Amino acid sequence: MTTLTTLTTPTTTTLQISPEPGSWVTVCEEDRLTPGRGVAALLPDGRQVAVFRDRSGRTYAIDNRDPFTGAQVLSRGLVGSAEGRPFVASPLLKQRFDLESGRCLDDEEAAVAVYPVRAK
Fold it and tell me: In this predicted model, what pLDDT tens digit does every residue of 75-87 receive, in sequence order?
């Protein structure tokens, strides 16, 4: 009796970000994200976004530019939560930015843009 083995190609899920309503840009493969750490991605218009996956598997995308210093560093920040809200703390001055709303938790006048994320 001969047994047939079917080889399957693993499917790759990519993450896409919507920098503008109605447009989606592929930024990376989903399995490239390590929970609790960020990666930087370059958009076609030259802007940088910071993409994060939290420990529960949810993904977020915000501007990578720290509004306090102007440096493109938020993707290197520390991910945590405050009162159940996920945030990233800037690696430079440690201001915390809510990953869902983009608002700064330490200065109500500061914020970063947030982008919708989907797996495709």
Answer: 999 999 999 999 9
